[in-house]
Design a protein that fits this description.
CATH superfamily of the largest domain: Response regulator
Distance between the termini: 88 Å
Number of helices: 11
Order of helices and strands: HEHEHEHEHEHEHEHEHEHEHEE
Number of domains: 2
Shape: elongated
CATH topology of the largest domain: Rossmann fold
Strand content: 15-25%
Structural class: alpha/beta
Radius of gyration: 25 Å
Strand order of the largest sheet: 2-1-3-4-5-11
């Protein structure tokens, strides 16, 4: 009886050791793999977001094992339902953090509120979420990104310096429900007002090149004497440039944009576009990821916005 009891105890002890070993291996594996961070962006067809994704991937590769990166994007800037669905999918996947560039400043808030309720860290990049709605929903989500108003005002000032008081210009806005589109429009307006230059027409081209081309062509027909075009992003600036070339007014109509994509960088070097703003797409997601990792490491950290650089780009900078 004694040996039987002793054998039973040995078996139990051995089983316990095996369980502890497997648990230890599991924890070691999890530690090596790190946490899972989902990057949720807008249209990957836009070079700006493709650059953002590449920058995030390079950031992850510099510290292999620190975290796993899951990259998501939508077909175009207006596919809000798909972006909401992606957030829901990431919640179901139980990622540790979501770093998001929302296509709309209000529409994503309910889904992100659910994510936070599920214990997921959420960091907002690029396009700031609506602060009034966040307060109303009692949700705190920090923003990591540039001051779009200041950036646009500086770009607009370059255009103003190349025009004369009383000249007329056009403006192409991004999606009007986006905070960054609103801030860039305000920045452009301030720059024009300071130099007594009139914005005779302003329409949204929803960040899209093709739509900007069609709208610009229509506006140029209606306002043949305009001297400049303010584009809320570089995709729209390229659409406007194509419309200006079509009517043979390259050089007579000055164009500025925002984002510093490669095509606009080349157009600036060629003297076809006057200026743009660089908000460092290659680093923007990485800034957000670093903040998310910091919040995961310190659950008691204060959620505060972090401003990132935005630089003026003209021919002298290329």
């Amino acid at each position: 009886m004694y040996w039987t009891d002793a054998l039973a105890l040995l078996k139990k002890a051995f089983s316990l050791l095996i369980a502890l070993f497997l648990f230890s291996c599991s924890n070691s594996s999890d530690s090596e793999q790190g946490v899972r961070i989902a990057l949720v962006m807008k249209s990957l067809a836009n070079e700006f977001f493709a650059t953002m994704a590449k920058g995030a991937e390079e950031h992850q590769q510099k510290t292999p094992g620190r975290y796993e990166l899951i990259v998501n994007g939508i077909k175009d800037e207006r596919d809000l339902s798909r972006q909401v669905a992606i957030v829901d999918e990431m919640v179901a996947l139980r990622v540790d953090a979501i770093v998001i560039a929302p296509a709309d400043s209000k529409a994503l808030i309910p889904a992100l509120k659910k994510a936070k309720a599920a214990g997921i860290v959420v960091v907002n990049i690029d396009n700031k979420l609506d602060q009034e709605l966040l307060a109303e929903e009692q949700v705190k989500i920090p923003f990591v990104g540039p001051n779009n108003l200041t950036g646009a005002q500086r770009v607009g000032a370059v255009l103003a310096d190349n025009l004369s008081p009383g000249d007329q210009v056009l403006m192409l806005e991004g999606t009007r429900t986006s905070f960054n589109a609103q801030q860039r429009a305000k920045g452009f307006e301030l720059a024009m007002k300071e130099s007594a230059i009139e914005i005779v027409d302003s329409q949204s081209a929803n960040w899209e090149m093709r739509e900007a081309n069609i709208i610009t062509a229509s506006m140029l027909t209606r306002y043949p004497d305009i001297k400049g075009i303010l584009a809320g992003n570089d995709s729209m600036a390229m659409g406007a440039l194509a419309a200006v070339k079509t009517i043979g007014k390259l050089g007579a109509i000055q164009i500025v944009g925002f984002d510093n994509i490669s095509a606009v960088n080349q157009a600036i070097a060629a003297g076809e576009i006057l200026a743009t703003a660089d908000q460092h797409a290659d680093k923007l997601a990485a800034y957000g990821i670093d903040y998310a990792l910091a919040l995961l490491a310190d659950e008691k950290a204060i959620l505060a916005d972090r401003e990132t650089p935005v630089d003026l780009i003209t021919a002298k900078d290329i």
